[in-house]
Sequence to fold (104 residues):
Amino acid sequence: MDIQLKRGLLDVCVLAAIKNADSYGYQIIKDMKPYLALSESTLYTILKRLEAAELLTVRSAEHGGRLRKYYRITEKGIRRIEDFKEDWQELLAIYRFVTREEKT
Fold:
């Protein structure tokens, strides 16, 4: 798979994982696990990229005597998910065209 396409798909997956509630790294990985495997190093790279793009915000809170970073999706992040859904319909149409059976 094209690396840029995969990067974009993973970005949207992480945004979708925090769409309904703030979350933290380990929980995001756990929530995504039934659908795809994601390493901690990959996740944190994605989270930093999404924060830099203002698609999510970060806050720290104490939990069990340690600071934990919680991630919250922004309005811009929600729009990114919606844009992805629209784009996906176009990609599906392209896929159906490419994989159509030849009529003889």
